[in-house]
Amino acid sequence: MEDLNVIKIGGNIIDEEPMLSSFLKKFASVTGKKILVHGGGKMATRMAEKMGIPQQLVDGRRVTDAETLKIVTMVYAGYINKNIVARLQSHQCNATGICGADGNSVLAHKRVSTGTDFGLAGDIDSVNGQWLKSLLDQGLTIVMAPITHNGQGQLLNTNADTMAQEIAKTMSGSFQVKLIYSFEKAGVLMNVEDEQSVIRSLNPASYLELKESKKIFAGMIPKLDNAFAAIREGVKKVIIGKGEDLGNLLNGKSGTTISHE
Amino acid sequence: MEDLNVIKIGGNIIDEEPMLSSFLKKFASVTGKKILVHGGGKMATRMAEKMGIPQQLVDGRRVTDAETLKIVTMVYAGYINKNIVARLQSHQCNATGICGADGNSVLAHKRVSTGTDFGLAGDIDSVNGQWLKSLLDQGLTIVMAPITHNGQGQLLNTNADTMAQEIAKTMSGSFQVKLIYSFEKAGVLMNVEDEQSVIRSLNPASYLELKESKKIFAGMIPKLDNAFAAIREGVKKVIIGKGEDLGNLLNGKSGTTISHE
């Protein structure tokens, strides 16, 4: 099977113009098929402030009321998505930007409230892998904004990490998928204070050992549990590290690589 | 050659929720290949006001400074484009929303200033008909936002009428193209005060006659000159009328039809 890289970048890269610029240049030069999933960054929050729309965060997640959905649709699927595409084009990387409504690529449902009501937040039901594959087969790079739809005309705000993971899982039916989470740290750290303490590789057994001996920073556990879930569902490798170091993440010279072995 | 409908809608439909809703339902039910080109409406102007960004119009055209470009990218390529797509999906019309940067579909250059500097306004250089055709051939309907790019990483604000026209001309190489301009009036009127005075058809000879006898409202002349230019460059028919009446426009029962004959 052919290789496919699914690369997720977050606000730490999107908000810093020189970092974004350098990342996009590196990303454009990665050979082979690739999908970029981007988060939002601070622009949506700043826009909401300017427009006088109060924002509510619960456990770091945004509560998406109707006005907030308007803003994230504009900022994520409009401003950020189209600027990334235009800049990839300038590096001779022919990209197309889409959200989950486009080509019915990611179908979701409004999150069922269990205590906190997250409003118009979407939990993913299915990814249209056939269409994404057809875009990739035409030589296009896909730039995905973390907005989904419910098939009944409603857009929904979806977590970009989850979006990348679900896409990676579905595409594993047709490709050998590497899922790269770009992150503000150099990888999964043994000691959260020490950037040199990157754990270079994790497999299910070594992860269990580290978890049981409480050697892993608790904040990383949900991310890692998700990474191992992706591996169990067919993703070949999950790599976590700094997006600025994209080349080395892809060839295994830096970051943390999560796999079966 | 197969038929293709290129349909342009403007602010009069986008700004009126019941009208938009009814239009999208009709549009979704149009059989065969189709491209929807949408303008912006009043939302960009309202957003600019809320954010304290002064807007300058010269002869009805927006001067696009950097902050205004951000807003139109967000509103046109984000909010409006993705909402239209999600709603078409709910009517079982599989659509994808793109702007000119996506798949390098519409390449433009910054308008050369001749007196008025329109800022980041884009004049179209080329349309990537091959890619648009490949999307249509996959059974997708294209929803196009009037934002283009210059190939060097810069997005540009482009007039939606021009965008529709350039797409229709390029696609005429592969399809029998009808270009439909949806409009606030029932068609080209003999008497601008009388909605019943629709001129049902125009060809180059009858148009010249009406122009010479000054029987056509002067405000329509640039639109009609463009329509005849499209016909000369391969577009089969240009139809001007009310979008609410889409079915009758397409089957020739209402509006003004512009063709060779």
Topology summary:
2 copies of one chain form a homodimer.
Chain A: E1 3-9, H1 11-14, H2 17-29, E2 33-38, H3 43-50, E3 57-58, E4 61-62, H4 66-90, E5 95-98, E6 106-110, E7 122-127, H5 129-137, E8 141-144, E9 147-149, E10 155-157, H6 160-171, E11 176-183, E12 201-202, H7 204-212, H8 221-232, E13 237-242, H9 246-250, E14 256-258
Parallel strand pairs in A: 1-2, 1-11, 2-8, 5-8, 11-13, 12-14
Antiparallel strand pairs in A: 3-4, 6-7, 9-10, 13-14
How would you characterize this protein structure?
Two copies of one chain form a homodimer. In chain A, 37% of the residues lie in helices and 23% in strands. The first copy, chain A, has helices at residues 11-14, 17-29, 43-50, 66-90, 129-137, 160-171, 204-212, 221-232, 246-250; strands at residues 3-9, 33-38, 57-58, 61-62, 95-98, 106-110, 122-127, 141-144, 147-149, 155-157, 176-183, 201-202, 237-242, 256-258. Chain A folds into two domains: 3-182, Carbamate kinase (3-Layer(aba) Sandwich); 185-261, no CATH class. Chain A has an eight-stranded mixed sheet, with helices on both faces. A two-stranded antiparallel sheet of chain A has the order 3-4. In chain A, helix 3 packs across helix 4 (66-90) and helix 6 packs parallel to helix 8. In chain A, 51% of the residues are buried. The first copy, chain A, is built from nine helices and 14 strands. Chain A starts with a strand and ends with a strand. With 261 residues, chain A is of the alpha/beta class. The radius of gyration of chain A is 18 Å and the shape is globular. In chain A, strand 9 (147-149) and strand 10 (155-157) form a beta hairpin. The model of chain A has no long low-confidence stretch (mean pLDDT 93). Chains A and B meet through helix 4 and strand 5 of A and helix 4 and strand 5 of B.
